[in-house]
Specification:
4 helices, 71% helix, elongated
Amino acid sequence: MTKTAFDKIAAGLRDAIAFAEGDSSKGRLDPSVKRSAPIDDFHRHEVLHGTAMVQSLFDDFIAGHVYTKSDAELTAAAEEISRAIADFYQAVGTKIDR
């Protein structure tokens, strides 16, 4: 994965965090799609759980990989992505507690 790919992932995560924090101009939700059930705490729990899995997979298999760690630029990009995933997890978590 190139630095450009890492940058795209980080940008997408920043958009997801902004959306979770209430910026409706970010994210990819299509308002014309009708939901079959209202959003509830279980939906948020699913997102929180999924985010935790993504964090674990990313940290274990990408950020922690010897190749990533061997390159300062990739290491920095991986750390930025990992922080963005953690920030998104926290943003979702605060919505559950509301």
